[in-house]
């Protein structure tokens, strides 16, 4: 193994992943360091396996908007005066007045992605893009874990890992596309996470224009994909397949939305397991397999108008389950089962789009050698403290913090933007409180943004 460029330097924090969650942490660390004496400042570095910053780029469809208020950006719920707020971004882009005149709480998804890129840019020197963490090794001294060796690799599995030592590790591995059993991505079978990239590679020419798409899924991404393909390919048939009777509306009413309030995390964390399960069941309609009511109405309007015109391109296969996928050179044969009767049919389509959601990144593949010291519950899930640190079987000052998957301990908002700013602040406070700097090694420079934005 190769030691890090800092040789014996031990950073206070290494962040795994650099999406919105660890970007919010980077901002919180920068703002903390600007307010404390130099001796108390925190050093940090982040590693991101992607080659550049990006957030759900495959679904930056035109006319799609955020489902959370712009005030739930990376900082405002923690520090409304931050120079990294969405309002500061608008001012920097000379669009603040125009946005105010727009009279909306929900910017377009494309604009919010631009905001995230704008906020990430000053941290480019503190992030190693294109470098994947392949192991986290606890270092024990006198029966205590004092720090970790974080192994990262660049350039494929044969590249020699580089080691960076750190007193704390913050994991924000994000989400990975979920694929139904017996499905494999190919040139004709896609996941919505890659939709725009796949559409850009379609063969050009009128004779090669797709004649049909099939979209499997009942959530927001599925409905957005159906609407997008229906609009962009006016000669193509669009088939929507889902096991529900119809698209279910998201519940974003004011009282229910309080499930995303910061104090709701405390309520959830301190609740018994049966109450946690009850809260999840009651409020799944805020986030899981639900669709904005305006989009539902728009799709129904299109479906009805096509029936009136006598030329139907939008086909809804409700109460239907995907059974098989047979990929050919020119089309995909999709085996479907109609649940009420069990009748099975085969639908021939040019392209199959799986809007089947995401699952949290598997911690086993990230933490590796650290996994044996992590405490788990009866279902094999890691036990997470209120400050997002993982309970360990060994004592010591070193900590691993999780920015997801913590839904089982911290509630529905764990995987969403709603609580990102507050969580980053809580982790920063925990790091500042728990840091022990008694290892005989240089600490590394204090963490900060490279330049004002």
Structure in words:
This protein has twelve helices and 18 strands. With about 450 residues, it is α/β, with parallel strands linked by helices. Strands 1, 2, 3, 4, 5, 6, 7 and 18 form an eight-stranded mixed sheet that branches. The protein has a five-stranded parallel sheet with strand order 9-16-10-11-12. A hairpin with an 8-residue loop joins strand 6 (about 145-155) and strand 7 (about 160-170).
Please state the structural category: alpha/beta
Radius of gyration: 24 Å
- State the helical fraction: 25-40%
Mean pLDDT across the residues is 91
Contiguous helical run count = 12
Classify the beta-strand content into a percent band. 15-25%
Number of strand elements: 18
H/E element order: EEHEHHHEEEEEEHEHEHHHEEEEEEHEHH
Largest sheet: 8 strands, mixed
Low-pLDDT sequence parts? none
Keyphrases for this structure?
22% strand, eight-stranded mixed sheet, single chain
Structure summarized in a few sentences:
Helix content is 26%, strand content 22%. The protein is α/β, with parallel strands linked by helices.
Note the topology:
Layout lengths: L1 E2 L6 E7 L3 H14 L10 E5 L37 H7 L3 H7 L6 H12 L6 E3 L2 E10 L2 E10 L8 E10 L3 E3 L11 E3 L3 H6 L11 E5 L3 H13 L4 E5 L20 H8 L3 H11 L9 H17 L4 E4 L2 E8 L4 E7 L4 E7 L1 E4 L3 E3 L2 H5 L31 E4 L4 H4 L9 H15 L19
Parallel strand pairs: 1-7, 2-3, 2-7, 3-4, 7-18, 9-16, 10-11, 10-16, 11-12
Antiparallel strand pairs: 5-6, 6-7, 8-17, 13-14, 14-15
């Amino acid at each position: 193994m190769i030691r890090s460029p800092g040789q014996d330097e031990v950073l206070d924090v290494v962040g795994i992943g650099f999406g919105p969650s660890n970007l919010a942490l980077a901002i919180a660390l920068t703002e903390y360091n600007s307010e404390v004496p130099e001796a108390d400042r925190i050093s940090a570095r982040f590693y991101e396996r992607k080659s550049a910053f990006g957030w759900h780029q495959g679904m930056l469809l035109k006319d799609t908007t955020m489902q959370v208020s712009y005030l739930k950006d990376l900082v405002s719920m923690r520090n409304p005066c931050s120079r990294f707020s969405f309002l500061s971004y608008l001012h920097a882009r000379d669009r603040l007045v125009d946005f105010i005149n727009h009279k909306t709480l929900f910017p377009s998804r494309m604009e919010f992605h631009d905001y995230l890129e704008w906020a990430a840019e000053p941290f480019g020197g503190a992030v190693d893009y294109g470098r994947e963490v392949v192991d986290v090794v606890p270092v024990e001294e006198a029966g205590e874990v004092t720090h970790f060796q974080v192994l990262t690799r660049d350039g494929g599995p044969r590249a020699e890992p580089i080691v960076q030592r750190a007193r704390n590790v913050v994991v924000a591995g994000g989400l990975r596309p979920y694929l139904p059993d017996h499905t494999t991505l190919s040139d004709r079978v896609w996941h919505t996470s890659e939709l725009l990239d796949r559409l850009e590679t379609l063969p050009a020419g009128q004779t090669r224009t797709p004649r049909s798409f099939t979209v499997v899924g009942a959530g927001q991404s599925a409905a957005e994909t159906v609407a997008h393909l229906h609009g962009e390919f006016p000669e193509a048939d669009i088939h929507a397949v889902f096991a529900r009777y119809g698209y279910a509306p998201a519940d974003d009413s004011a009282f229910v939305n309080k499930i995303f309030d910061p104090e709701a995390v405390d309520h959830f964390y301190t609740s018994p397991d049966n109450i946690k399960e009850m809260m999840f069941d009651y409020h799944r309609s805020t986030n899981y397999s639900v669709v904005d009511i305006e989009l539902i109405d728009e799709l129904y309007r299109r479906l009805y108008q096509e029936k009136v015109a006598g030329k139907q391109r939008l086909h809804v296969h409700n109460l239907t389950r995907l059974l098989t996928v047979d990929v050919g050179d020119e089309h995909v044969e999709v085996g479907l089962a109609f649940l009420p009767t069990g009748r099975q049919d085969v639908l021939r389509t040019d392209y199959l789009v799986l809007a089947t959601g995401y699952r949290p990144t598997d911690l086993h593949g990230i933490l590796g050698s650290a996994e044996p010291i992590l405490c788990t519950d009866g279902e094999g899930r890691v036990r997470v403290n209120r400050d997002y640190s993982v309970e360990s079987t060994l004592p010591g000052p070193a900590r691993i913090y999780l920015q997801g998957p913590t839904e089982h301990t911290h509630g529905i908002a764990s995987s969403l933007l709603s609580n990102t700013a507050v969580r980053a602040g809580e982790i920063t406070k925990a790091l500042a409180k728990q840091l022990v700097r008694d290892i005989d090694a240089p600490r590394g420079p204090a963490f900060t943004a490279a330049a004002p934005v």
